[in-house]
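dumping this here so i dont lose it again. seq + smiles for zinc ion
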Amino acid sequence: MKDSLALGIDLGGSKIYAVVTDPDDKVLASAKLPTPADAAPEIIIRTMLETAGNALEKLNLKLDDVSCIGAAFPSPVDPATGDCTFATNLGGRSFSAKAIFRELTGRDVSLGNDGDLGTLAEFRRDGNDSEKSLIGFFIGTGLGGGIILDGKLLEGNSGMAAELGHMIVRKGGRRCGCGHRGCIEAYCSKVAFVKAIQKGIRQRNCQTLLPPDKFTLESTNIKSKYLSKAYRGRDPLVCEVIDKGAVMLGIAAASVCAVVAPERIVLGGGVIDSMGDVILPVFRKSFEKHLFGLSPDKIKISLSSYGDDAVATGAAILARQQKGVR
Ligand SMILES: [Zn+2]
């Protein structure tokens, strides 16, 4: 039994998730810890291993008991070197996660980008046998993405493909964490929402229903559930900002469809978990308005059913694929 277990770890902008999965990709145990986002890469990876240890402990297991380990990073990951580059939500640093993991565990860890691995997990779970292409958008602290083409993850040159959050949707638009202007991530991500709400309060003196002990003008850290509550309470500023994000994401998704023409689009991530049902109609209307060629009913749009475990489960799937473990 132990031989068939895989470990997946997801480094998010605010939380680290770890899962232990069986050969059917079922999550047997999970754990989470806050991300020490400002710490050195080695400290961050130590915390990833600590989170993994907590998940394993629930099954009375140790790291040596799993047959393969996969990890997801919020940055492009070079499949050849394991280098994480341009981790914009971790201070834009570049480092070799593969080398650090090897030093700390003595093992080779399979590495991938978080949006890619979330998309891989969704493809494996909900894709029927005839489905060959899928685009995933994961709205969390940032905006991750992934593309499956002909049943395989699109890696591209140096693992840089499917950085969907950095598609530029407005020339000279909002400043993105990557340094460019007008990226879709600067309109549709938790950090983008909070910054736009803060700007509305500062410049237009808007009021908000967001609780003052959870939302301040100084921090971009807020749980999705508070944004969701304010949106559902029809907070005008919160609705304006999030609806704009959903409209912009619809434009971005339609643009990717003009390139990929997928069979399905999946929306996931923390923001979608807490308010996907209310964002979806706004997204869909904008998507259909901007879609070229294909009839909208040819492209299925689904919300992730995984919740917090999607990316970590995708990391475990990648590890199985790379190690040839079933
Ligand atoms: Zn960007």
